[in-house]
Each structure stands twice: as C-alpha cells, then as structure tokens.
Amino acid sequence: MTEPATDLKYTADHEWVAVDGDIATVGITAYAAEKLGDVVYVDLPKVGSTVTGGTVVGEIESTKSVGELFAPVNGTVAEANSAVVDAPELVNSDPFGEGWLVKVRFTELPDNLLSYDEYAALTGE
C-alpha cells in the first residue's frame, strides 16, 4: 500500500487533499481504504457540479460496507477520476496516487483541514 504524503492536508472523514493553485485533488486515505476492505464500486459527482464542504458527494462500496465521500472544500468539480469508477480496486492499491477521486476548483480552503501529524494522531497511526 502507498505510504501517506506528509505534505497533504487531511480531513477527520479520512480524506486527503492535495492543493495545486485553486484545485484540490481529493482521495481517501490508506487508513480508510484498509478499514473499508476491498473496494468494489465508486460513485463520484459529475464534472461541473457544485459541492459544499462537509456534505456527501459520492459513495464508496466495499465487500464489507458502504462509505460516503465528503467534499472537503466548497467549489465546482473540475474532474472525476473515471479510472477508479472502472477499476475501484485502485482506491485500495494506490490511494494516494492513481486512486484519487475528484478534483475540485475552490476559492478558499477551510480552516478545519488537518496536517499529517494531526491526522496521524486522530487515527493512532
């Protein structure tokens, strides 16, 4: 499994956020992927849709359970990763790489995003 990057931001909902200009790339953490088990289905928001931070924007189903994908920022979906829709197992095998889920164009980052150390303390990792 891919190691987490310490330069990413994290949410208490077990998502990672990589910021590049006004685009936030979002995925679920390796911790979340491990807890979910083998991911078998991913439902992502449509490109162009507006998302509100803290609200459910997608779904991740595994052999064990169904998890919700929350938007970590307010904005517009710029890209949805069709590769994970076609091959959901990418969420497990490469959660910080090819397993990313959506890219959101945002105007402001919320102040509730966690550093790597804060997220590690939250998960006990």
Describe this entry's structure for a reader.
It is a single chain. The protein has 125 residues and is an alpha+beta fold. It has a single domain (9-108), classed as OB fold (Dihydrolipoamide Acetyltransferase, E2P), CATH 2.40.50.100. The protein is built from 4 helices and 9 strands. The chain has helices at residues 30-36, 82-86, 90-93, 116-123, and strands at residues 9-10, 15-20, 23-28, 39-43, 50-51, 56-62, 66-70, 75-80, 102-105. The strands form 2 sheets. Strands 1-2-3-9-8-5 form a 6-stranded antiparallel sheet. It has a 3-stranded antiparallel sheet with strand order 4-6-7. Strand 1 (9-10) and strand 2 (15-20) form a beta hairpin. The longest helix is centred in the C-terminal third of the chain and has 8 residues, at 116-123.
Helix and strand string, N-terminal first?
EEEHEEEEEHHEH
* Helix/strand structural class: alpha+beta
Mean pLDDT: 92
Point out poorly predicted stretches. Answer: none
Second CATH tier, the architecture? Beta Barrel
Outline = globular
| Helical segment count | 4
Helical content stands at 10-25%
What tags apply to this protein structure?
125 residues; globular; OB fold (Dihydrolipoamide Acetyltransferase, E2P); 4 helices; alpha+beta; six-stranded antiparallel β-sheet
